[in-house]
Amino acid sequence: MASWLTEREVGCMEKKSLDHFGQLQRAVIEVVWELGEATVRQVWKRLCRKKELAYTTVLTAMQRLERAGWLKHRVDGRKHIYLPTKTRAQAGAGSVRKFVQRMFDGNALVLFRQLVEEGELSDKELRELQKLINQKRKEREK
Q1: Is 100 a domain residue?
Q2: % of the chain with per-residue pLDDT over 70
Q3: Shared domain check, 119 and 80
């Protein structure tokens, strides 16, 4: 733990969902997910294709993501190689849960009803939803 952070502050940072980070931190984690693991230089080069950024800006973003529990690193010679601690699917699931809680008072059925009734789902998409529902029923029966 960094000496300038209290245990409470570190605990709060570790609980931060990806939704609480800015555009740069989200872009950084996307690059690391895409590469599997990455140095600051690799992430910086990828992000500079779209927008000019200072190397230290990317370094700071990666260090913040590490303090927040989204990245970890290992040392290889003089390089720090960063790895994600959560998958893209885990990040998405957490965001969806928080969205359902915030917008639908935790009632996922209201969200699904809204999507089915107001959405323009194809027959293929409706079949896929039915398949997911059937799979969930089978899981519960076990």
Answers
A1: no
A2: 89
A3: no
Long-range CB pairs of 89-95, under 8 A, 24+ apart, other chains included:
91/17, 91/18, 91/29, 94/17, 94/18, 95/17, 95/18, 95/19
CATH of residue 74? 1.10.10.10
The per-residue pLDDT for 15 is 54
HSE-CB for 105 with a 13 A CA cutoff: 1
Amino acid 38: pLDDT:
97
The residues near 52 (Cβ < 8 Å, ≥ 6 apart) are: none
Residue 5 predicted with pLDDT over 80:
no
Backbone dihedral region for residue 40 (phi beyond 0: left; psi -120 to 50: alpha; all else: beta):
alpha
CA distance 19 to 29: 12
Query: In the predicted model, what is the mean pLDDT of residues 59-79?
Result: 95
Q: What's residue 26's pLDDT?
A: 93
Q: Are 47 and 99 in contact (CB under 8 A)?
A: no
**Cα–Cα distance for residue pair 3/46, rounded to 1 Å:** 32
Please answer whether residues 65 and 71 qualify as being in contact, where contact means their C-beta atoms are separated by less than 8 angstroms: yes
Question: pTM for this structure?
Answer: 0.66
